[in-house]
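Quick illustration, no need to memorize.
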Amino acid sequence: MIVGQWVSFGLGGADKASYYLIKGLIELGVDVRIFYNEWSFPKPSPQLDSGVLLLSRYDQYKDLNVPMFEIKNVENLNNYNLNILNTHRGGDDFWLIPGLEKLHCNFKIVETNFHGNLFTRADVRVFPSYTMIESRSIQYRYVIIPNPIMPKLSNYNLRKKFNIEGKFVFGRIGRPAKDIYSDTCLRAYKILENENNFFIYVAPCNEARMDAHKLGIKNILFIDQILDEVYISKLYNTFDVMCHSNKMGETFGNTIAEAMMHGKPVVSHFGKDWPQAQKEVLGIDYSKHYVCENNAEKYSSLMNKLMTDKHEYDLWSLFLELVANKYYNYKSVAAKYIELYKRIVI
């Protein structure tokens, strides 16, 4: 079986999930070819602060050591003897692969769909959560396969480097995008801030820096967005609790699952407009306790519970790590994709 993966090189959840899916497929012996075009490279966006450095995963994909092809005419896809072309789209982003909708294909299209829209072309769609299906009332041909997640890549942390040894550390990792930014986790932390705790905020937009200053938060470190996966793993190891805060919600929540992979409890709040899949990703037993309304006081009480109750902390750390390794391990997820590919290739 020859599988083509159409990729983009940004730092979003789709870009990272695509990378780990390919990595898993390769390790399971699948013949993979990577396809991209000019639109695959990161470009400035109104949701990003002006002057923000646009990091690219191109070299990361290149290091996978599988054939990579830049496609300038989509008709050329028919020349690669593909059985499957796996695309990673939101269901309405025709700009990413111009011409695919009208192409007479000699391969099947599997679309890994991250938004729940259904206008793009696909023989089968893969959605990362049941929550998305329910919230979008989707009834078309689909399967549910969670996103493949970055594993724990280091056993080290950065507490000594940051001079925060002995402190209880809250952390947040996400995209520096204004459309998803919420100040809830910062306002919640301000309620708890004392000399014995600390907050690490990774990939802030300008609003986050300004809000922290307005709130008078002193024990905080801002770290610009980074691509080094080992360093990111060390950051998760540095956290005691991951504070997920997205004003829209999640169709899956890669950073939630990454924190779980590192054995870190997660606190989250509901958003608006999008599905709220963080409940599903955390697991129903856990989410009943640690996903709350978008309210700083309630959010802060959940943070405080994990900071002050060691038994509770240890219980949920272990539970979440087990859930993540069972369902979100990139090789296990890739195996599910292989099963799907085999079913639809005739």
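Residues 37 and 72 are 6 Å apart (CA to CA).
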